[in-house]
Amino acid sequence: MDALIAAAARALAVGDPLGALKRxxxxxxxxxxxLRGIAMAQLGDLVRARTLLRSAARGFGVRExxxxxxxxxxxxxxxxxxxxxxxxxxxxxGAWAALDAHGDTMNAAHARNLEMRRLLLxxxxxxxxxxxATLDPASLPPALRATHELVVAGLATxxxxxxxxxxALARAExxxxxxxxxxxxxxxxxxxxxxxxxxxxxxxxxxxxxMRLEEVETLLSSPALVVDACxxxxxxxxxxxxxxxxxxxxxxxRLLAEAWPGDAPRNTLVARAFRARRADESxxxxxxxxxxxxxxxxxxxxxxxxxxxxxxxxxxxxxxxxVLARPVEEEHASVLALLADGESWxxxxxxxxxxxxxxxxxxxxxxxAAAGKVQxxxxxxxxxxxxxxxxxxxxxxxxxxxxxx
Length: 405
What we know:
Elements: H1 3-13, H2 17-24, H3 30-42, H4 46-59, H5 65-81, H6 89-101, H7 105-121, H8 125-132, H9 142-158, H10 162-179, H11 182-194, E1 198-204, E2 207-212, H12 213-220, E3 225-228, E4 233-236, E5 239-242, H13 247-259, E6 264-265, H14 266-274, H15 281-297, E7 302-306, E8 310-315, E9 321-325, H16 333-339, H17 347-354, H18 358-370, E10 375-377, E11 384-386
Parallel strand pairs: 3-9
Antiparallel strand pairs: 1-2, 1-9, 3-4, 4-5, 6-8, 7-8, 10-11
């Protein structure tokens, strides 16, 4: 490695892409192309960065497996930043194995961090947790230690373990300051703000108020009967009944919980659950059937009693009944939640993260664009969607991955 290459690498390590380009901007040998690609990525030109890195990888010979693996890891990082979630993960796994075999433990750890961040992004929390257990952050340099702790914090946040997340973010902040990389410090600060922002709404006895993630965690572990409109389930004393695949039953459960300690009128239940403007005898008969199904589903938590004008929810042991609602009642809230990170997403990446069809995502994006909530640029496969972050709230409870078991 010559002096200019070494100096450019040191500049990139401290987040100075312009300093790196001053040293290797006019060179086209493989090491210089790789460094130029990383510099362009740090400057935000991801398309040019990917082209340079692929040219560098082709330029390295067969015997230079270590250098080629580093190029693959750099390209994987660019793919993650560009939300190219379909980028071939076998290539990253092969690069990680090559780096580990050649003793480049730092870049091997970086490859593992990238894979964990991708798994976290698409909601595969169990896989991310297993990968996390294979890394020891104590041996990592400050920059990698900061990104590792961000993964820990992100996983804990999605699991609703706010204490673990807060401790991980404190460690990430210390590591980011030691690394002295402004972009990394900004990312840690942005993640820390999520724990302080409203994450949901509590509806109880006809009143509602915003809640932070820490309050949501406390609520779900309390003796209250919680109808969770964020994940479409019912919680009580650490146990959960999922109604995610029974939308009619969940709608009825939420209406009963919102009306508690009173009852919900039959006409209201029919209109909201069956979307019928006027209730006739067939609707009332169907309502009785659905209420019977709901009563069987909730028999361990509460009873559903018929009243003179409708139905009432009667929890066991006289506990409180509350509704945990999303901070934003939006039909396409999960799409907005993913776009709220400020990055540009393709419709295929959104479909992968939401575990749904690309056509469904495209319809949601078209509706949001018509309402002025999202914007796109590019055409065909290069089309990307983005939106400014939702002001003043955290979108954790809008994301598709499950909360605490």
